[in-house]
Structure formats: C-alpha cells, structure tokens
Amino acid sequence: MTTPSTRPTDDRAAGPASVPPPTALLLLRGPRERVAGWVSRSVVPLVVAPVGRWTVAVAAAGPPTGPPYDDGALLLVGRPVPARTGPALGFSETGGRAVITVHAAGRRRGPGWVVWEPGVGLVRPPGLDLAGPGEIVRLAGCPARTREELVDLLHETGPRPMTMLQAVMATLGLPGPRLLQDPVRAAELPGATRHDPSARQVSWFEDAVADSVRLRRELGVLE
Fold it and tell me: At CA 32, angle to CA 86 and CA 26, rounded to 5?
C-alpha cells in the first residue's frame, strides 16, 4: 500500500545481486488525489513524486505477477488511465525498443502507442492503436511547432532506445528524462513516496486476468 509519510528506500544499497528495475515511467497530469488512487491499485512497485504540474510514477521493481504479465515496463505504461486521472504519457524501454504511450480523454480502446526500434525507426505492431505526433505535442502542452521537431526525431534510426526516449522527453520539455536511466533517483525527489502492491492486489489482478482469458475463449476470441 502507499505510505505517504514514509520516504522510499534507496535500492542502490541492495548490492550487485539486486535485479534492476524495469525502465519505465509514467507522467500523469490529473488531480493528485485521483493519481494516488490509481497508484494504490498498481501491481507494479512504484516511486511516485510531484514534478511541477505532473506527477511522475517510476517503476521501482518488477511486478510479483507471473508470466506473461511479468513485464513491469508494459504493465506501467500500458495500464489504462481514467480520463479524470489523466492525461498521461508513458515512456519505457521494452524488448530493445522505445515505447511511448498516450492516455488522453476520448480514447476508447486504451492508450495510443508509439513504438520505435533502432536501425528501423517507427514500427507498427499489430493490434495496437497508434498515437500521432500532434496528439503527443498537444498533451505535453507544447507549441504546435514542436510537432515538426518531434517527427524529425522519431524518423532517426541511429540512437539507442534509452537515448531516443530521453530525447523525446527533452523535446517536449517534460520532467524526469534522467529517471529512465537512473530510476533509483526518483526516491530523492521532494515528496517522493513508495507503493508496493499487497498480496491481495496481486491475487485480484491474476484472478481478473484468468477470468478475462476464460471469457474470451468461451466467446471464441482465443483458441
């Protein structure tokens, strides 16, 4: 559960045997109390802190859920954000790709996605609702002219995924690009708190996933 009165611990003290946290953060711009409610239901351990007009949620460790729902980066940035809690922008490195998610009012199929691969550029994974550069620029609160700069950046193919994500955040004037590379620094932000999912939350999540898969099989959506 979230403990606002307790500052999060610094995982760097865990030593070389510790598993690095997923490379992922989510910036949310909704009211703080609604963001806190959203965070409290996360199955991904998070460090959360106010950063200007945003609240940043940084993955602090991998989730305790089993495969295929053990990818903390995708669980964080791909989890739906209600309209009254957002808008929100997610940034993660997953499977050697840079992934950006857009959570905006009016999106009925979940977040919009931008997926970028080094040596290739933008890719279009099947089944994902894509987000356009104009939408990202508007949600970030940037001037319209930023769109052209963002388009040029996303058409590059040489950078590493981490470098691309940080460059996109810098182009949009968003806080926290360094937290992608050094997520434990989130614990040092003023007002930072840590959320760790309870066993009950994890059980509820796994039961809900199992029920959803079972229903889809009964309806013939899954074989």
Answer: 50
Q: What is the pLDDT of residue 212?
A: 45
Q: What is the per-residue pLDDT across 135-190, written as a single tens digit (0 to 9) for each?
A: 999 999 999 999 999 999 999 999 999 999 999 999 999 999 999 999 999 999 99
| C-alpha to C-alpha distances, 31 to 51, 72, 75, 82, nearest whole angstrom | 13, 24, 22, 12
Mind giving me the DSSP string for 102-115? EE-TT-SSS-EEEE
Rounded distance, CA 10 to CA 100, Å? 27
Q: Which residue is listed with tokens 């959803």? A: 212
Q: What is the CA radius of gyration of the chain?
A: 17
Per-residue pLDDT at 64: 80
Q: Which residues contact 61 (CB under 8 A, 6 or more apart)?
A: 11, 19, 21, 22, 44, 45, 72
183 Cβ contact list (under 8 Å, min separation 6): 21, 23, 25, 47, 58, 59, 60
pLDDT at 96 over 70: yes
* pLDDT for the residue 18: 63
pTM (two decimals): 0.84
Q: What end-to-end distance do the CA atoms of the chain give, in Å?
A: 37
What is the C-alpha separation between 12 and 104, in angstroms, rounded?
35
Q: Which residues contact 131 (CB under 8 A, 6 or more apart)?
A: 100, 101, 102, 111, 112, 113, 114
